[in-house]
């Protein structure tokens, strides 16, 4: 059953992310074309032109390998399978739960990014996300937090709100999974779906419904960031004035 699920998952990944792959291929071809056009425009020697062609071909091969399904999805997935599903029985049970019980939750890996999916089942979660495709065992999760965050949009630095849902396996580590939602109801529904299947001892914090429980960032961090920003701007101004003297 696991091998059958794996083949079905390969097809689902290829179908879901086909447009992204086509866009990446277009960008790679455009970069290579720009490099060759620049060399021809500068009228470089045939040695430079030949070197540029070789470099462009190598760059294209490297970039295409990096955006392949194998590199983006299957390698991190199989690494996770070997670590989390160590027996044949656990692999078969995982495939059975994902196929028969899993509830898909659509989320964004980051604000304004193409949505991905996490499949939530009784004992396992499966993340279908580029570079982070993996299996999560629910008994390893220690905390789930629903919070809100702001992010910048546009050239003028406008800010908007979004909702972030994160799973933690330890207090001292980064979240094992984090998803963003633009709609409060969708984020709350996803939070409740996780609560239904996660072990009872998992700490669940809904900071959207209870903002008073949210920890405030230390003021020194705020002032340190602003100080570093002002020092950077001052350094740029001094650098510009220095070069204007020549």
Describe this structure in words.
Helices cover 52% and strands 20% of the residues. It is flat, with a radius of gyration of 24 Å. By secondary structure, it is of the alpha+beta class. A four-stranded antiparallel beta sheet has the order 1-2-3-4, sandwiched between helices. Strands 7-6-5-8 form a four-stranded mixed beta sheet, with helices on one face.
Strand and helix layout:
Layout: H1 2-16, H2 18-41, H3 46-66, H4 69-84, H5 88-100, E1 103-107, E2 116-120, E3 124-128, E4 134-137, E5 143-153, E6 158-168, E7 177-181, H6 184-197, E8 203-206, H7 219-244
Parallel strand pairs: 5-8
Antiparallel strand pairs: 1-2, 2-3, 3-4, 5-6, 6-7
Unreliable sequence segments: none
Number of strands: 8
Average pLDDT score: 82
Largest sheet: 4 strands, antiparallel
Q: What is the tally of helical segments?
A: 7
Gyration radius, rounded:
24 Å
How are strands sequenced across the largest beta sheet?
Answer: 1-2-3-4
Helix and strand composition category? alpha+beta
End-to-end separation in angstroms reads 72 Å
Bin the helical content. 40-55%
Global outline: flat
Strand content: 15-25%
Order of helices and strands: HHHHHEEEEEEEHEH
